[in-house]
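Record pair follows.
FIRST:
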Amino acid sequence: MKNMVRVIAASVIIPGLLLTACGGGSSSSSTTEAGAPASAGAPGAGTLPANEPDVNKDKKVVIGVMSPGDTKDKGYYQSFVDEANTYATANGWKLVVVDKINPANAVQQARNLCRQKVDMIAIGASELKDALSAAKEPQCKGTTWYISGGQGVTQTAEFTQSLDYINESLYVAGYAAGLILKENGGKKAGYITGPDLQFARDVAKAFEAGIRKVVPDAEMVQTYTGDFNDSGKAKEAAQAQISQGVKVIYPYLGGATDVVTQLANEKGVPALTPGTDRCGTPGAQYAISVIFSPGAYFAGALEDFKKGTLRMGVAREWHLGKDPVPTVKLCKPTGDQAQQLQTLIQDIGSGKVKVDEAVAAGK
């Protein structure tokens, strides 16, 4: 699909955006320095670029945002731009947003942004990690670099990244779905996603293990449509799963998320969000918000950038039960569901529950 480029002045309101990102950082998050073990991250780790946030000293702050997905998907990819726009509006900055980028074009798109004299290039997902190779090129000299690394990109001195862990968020998401299944007497959950990739399989595995902690004999129906944004394929998959009797459904999708959820709403099947807080927002109604959006982590980096303390060459780790995000919330809990969910989150954060072992065991 042809790349879409938008220049957004700080005073412009972007129509139709849902402010779904959950902002804020936490001093409890750990950092990993380039070439150092995970325990590194003492004050002074990495390198601090001069003159943040106006690193090129042209008396304006411009952030170039790169995304592989649709930044109007009302979810995961949009949250990244929402957070950047919040900071731009508050501080008189400007954004240059390039979305729907083919990973094969990532380096060239990064070079184009550098030529526009941006102060920061912010990459919304690790699919575009190859763009980081442009950081050493002459046209990108002095630019700061940030990437939402997910499970992690090999750290170098040129950029900073945020890390989170699939098993933590998705195991707890499954547990929350299991609480709903237990309440409605269901034994079957649905999982719909796009391409059949390893990370999507990892998500499914953790989600299913969490469900089975509550409902040991639960079954999960998985559908891989091949496209995160194709609403027709996603709706067809949802109809098929609902006809098979799923009693909770997880549209782990991009632009097709709300189409699935709206159908689930019509059929009385609870749904989960793929990364953002949608409890109580207009439109599609969600039973569970699974919050691990890139915007949630980007908020912490932008706050440091604003203060002039964002260091390159380090990774910031975000852990469920230790930091404000990631987290999972039931939108309308009943009985002691909220307390059960919070207890699990705290037990994972404290290390009482070894989540990787639980996922490996499938329960």
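SECOND:
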Amino acid sequence: MVEGRLGQATTLAIGSVVVAIVVLGLKAGAWWLTGSVALFADALESVVNVAAATAALAAVRLSSLPADANHPYGHAKAEYFSAVLEGALIIVAALLILHQAWGALAAPRVPDQPGLGLAISALASAGNAAWAMVLMKRGRALRSPALVADARHLWSDVVTSAGVIIGVGLVVATGILWLDPLLAALTAGNILFSGFRLLRESVGGLMDEAVPAHTLERIRRIVAEQAEGAIEAHDLRSRHAGRFTFLEFHLVVPGAMTVAQSHEICDRIEAALKAELDTAIITIHVEPEGKAKHKGVPVL
């Protein structure tokens, strides 16, 4: 099942590269036709999309490599590095857009061929929106940080593109030329926010943040229900690494229980947890009843 997920993630990552290149071509064409600095900002963000999609593809392929002697826990965290890189690229693009907008404020100009340019930009944005929906849905299902990060960036691009299209239309309709660089600056601000949020989430994954509270509660409930014969479970710890969830805890059993009996309980717990979290990697440390802490997860 895991191998199938990795294959799907790789296919989606390749699709992202293809979509990003096509959208970049369309948006670059819209900017070339109009000369609008706001459409330049939109096209520059698509350059970042191509780089980010390529990085996501490399990360997904690297994360699919099996564990080895130097990486006994696998390579799943490679996807977080891709997401960090994407966040950094977004911030760089935003700064470049701000620089261009500042220069355009001094000498604003009327966009050329605005109708055709805006139509091409709208077509590119529609393609981005459709792919972002696919990528977000499948990325969450596959638990791929790189794909989810790419989808969020695309959604941010769609929102800013819509604002740019409306704004450039207003420039043409009203003749207020400074609206064009102002829209570019606002686009840069939105991109900066997206980049910082993406960096925050990616760094959290690299820092081994625990699973969300609702997921942890489900884990505790499963352990309590499936540990019949044991006394308690304590010191439950969790962390995410890409699509994998690592769980470990101590299971206290009666001192007279045989190794085979305690192992049977562990097998039962692991089977139930993997039915709930099929990419879970579980480590259970069995202890005698003298090690009970009378806290943690009581056995139902």
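COMMENT: The chain has eight helices and four strands.
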